[in-house]
Amino acid sequence: MNFKGFKSGTDIRGYGAEQFSDEPLYLSDEFVMAVAESFANWLGARTGKYTNEITVSIGRDSRVSGPRIMAAAITALCFRLKNRENQKKGGADKTAPQEQEEKSQ
C-alpha cells in the first residue's frame, strides 16, 4: 500500500470515485480502512488507551465518494479495531460462533 499520497502529513489526495477519472482509484476502501486504523492506533498510543476506548468524530464533504469513504472509515474504527483489541485482551466479548468453534477444536 502506498501512503505517499499524504500531503504535509495531514491531507490525503487522490481519486475516490472511479466513474469520474481514468486514474486508478487511490482512496479505495482498503486504503481508507488502513488509514483509519493507523490513526486510531496512533491515537491509542498517544493517549495510553485501547483503541476501543477512544471516541472520534467522522465528517465528510459533499463529494460523491464521501459516503463510501466515511463508511469504510467507520467500518475500520468500529469493527476491525474492536476485533483486534478483543484478540489482544485474550478474546473478551467473543461471539457465540467463535466460542463454539473453539470448543469443537
Distance from first to last alpha carbon? 35 Å
- From N to C, what is the helix and strand string? EEHHH
For the biggest β-sheet, the strand order reads 1-2
Largest sheet: 2 strands, antiparallel
The radius of gyration is: 17 Å
* Residue share in β-strands: under 5%
> Which structural category fits the helices and strands?
mainly alpha
- Uncertain parts: 92-100
- The helix content, as a percent range, equals 40-55%
Quantity of strands, as a count:
2
Shape annotation: elongated
Task: Describe this entry's structure for a reader.
With 105 residues, the protein is mostly helical. It is built from three helices and two strands, in the order E-E-H-H-H. It has a two-stranded antiparallel sheet. Strand 1 and strand 2 form a beta hairpin. Helix 1 packs across helix 2 (66-88). The chain is elongated. 13% of the residues are buried. The model is unreliable at 92-100 (pLDDT under 50).
